[in-house]
């Protein structure tokens, strides 16, 4: 089965998220009796020369996107609560059967019971339709997910040591006709525990353990597994104009099916921000870890990714963004894909509540499997508005 994997089937919103997004509008809110209501609207027009991400017989189209977002937020001293809903309507002018609307709903809460005890909660719902890298070329892939989770923290922020305990449950279901991709429906349970120890005023060492259970809905699935990660590292805030987190360790994946080989590999997660000037920021993100495979193909994908970005504000109203990403996907079945992606964008703030941006993104995938290599160009102009 052809994979449907997030890092390779990057949505356009992700592809262009860092193109022309250096300056954010300052949207005003409406006070509804102590609850702040903040609406925003994003309109974009883009040309995509290979929106299905295929190697031959590419389909291209002008695409109009309309994305309204509505946020309700309330604050009770140090406690914060919010509800966010957004939809993304896409019109494919050359392929009207691919028109689609995505829905996203998030409920968030941050509660501080004492200076030592706090809790963050999140619940979400996403209904998505994808045109890129689908199971059957020319047929959109439809699915929805639910999730609920939280992180409990103990220890004052200024204390020598802090502890965090996390839990999350996600349900993923497909809405395709004929049961297409039903074998990828799964429930995912994640648990984590992290201990922080302050070694300097703005630097903390950390040790982290994660456990994830993948439970596939199909009774014939052989991909049910448990994944465990052991990480150590350091996190620092605004030290010599640099902040970030670096974690290194070991990951293990054990399958319930005894006929499948278990896997264990080194892993890492690094995110660093360097701001030599208040108006210029460089970012580095790199990670290595396991991603889920596909029934009848590969058991898992060993994925390594590295991203570099530069965000620069040329004035109070003009900013630019440059970014580069490299992804290596090493499949357990000897397939290997290398992805290179570059992007550039400009944002011009017309008003406090309005900005216009232009962006370009190029993506190239080189695979050792025939028919899986392709390239893709996107050109976009975007208008963002608030109150």
From TrEMBL:
<dbReference type="InterPro" id="IPR018759">
    <property type="entry name" value="BBP2_2"/>
</dbReference>
<protein>
    <submittedName>
        <fullName>Capsular polysaccharide synthesis enzyme CpsB</fullName>
    </submittedName>
</protein>
<dbReference type="InterPro" id="IPR023614">
    <property type="entry name" value="Porin_dom_sf"/>
</dbReference>
<dbReference type="Pfam" id="PF10082">
    <property type="entry name" value="BBP2_2"/>
</dbReference>
<feature type="signal peptide">
    <location>
        <begin position="1"/>
        <end position="24"/>
    </location>
</feature>
<keyword id="KW-0732">Signal</keyword>
